[in-house]
Amino acid sequence: MCLQDSTAAKRQAPLISLCQPIRCPNACITERHRPAWTRAAADAEDMLREKRLAEPQRVALRQDLERFRAILDAISPCDDVEISKDAKS
Predict the structure, then answer these.
(1) CA-to-CA distance for 37 and 15, rounded, in angstroms?
(2) Are 80 and 31 in contact (CB under 8 A)?
(3) What is the mean pLDDT of residues 19-41?
């Protein structure tokens, strides 16, 4: 999926900026990844508090935050298995 919209030259590795772990059958996000996703969500929340932020940036940040929260919700506290299609909403 992350390579789907990329050029052939860029298909050598996943493109993190296009990563959609909730939709990707190759995603393997476990409890050990929670701190990184929690930091990403906290950073997005912090940026949304910036009063001078342009509306298009706010929209993008809200979308990112929604994605981060969905990923965090898919990780159960003792989970150490892949996020499967069954766990996705």
Answers:
(1) 17
(2) yes
(3) 85
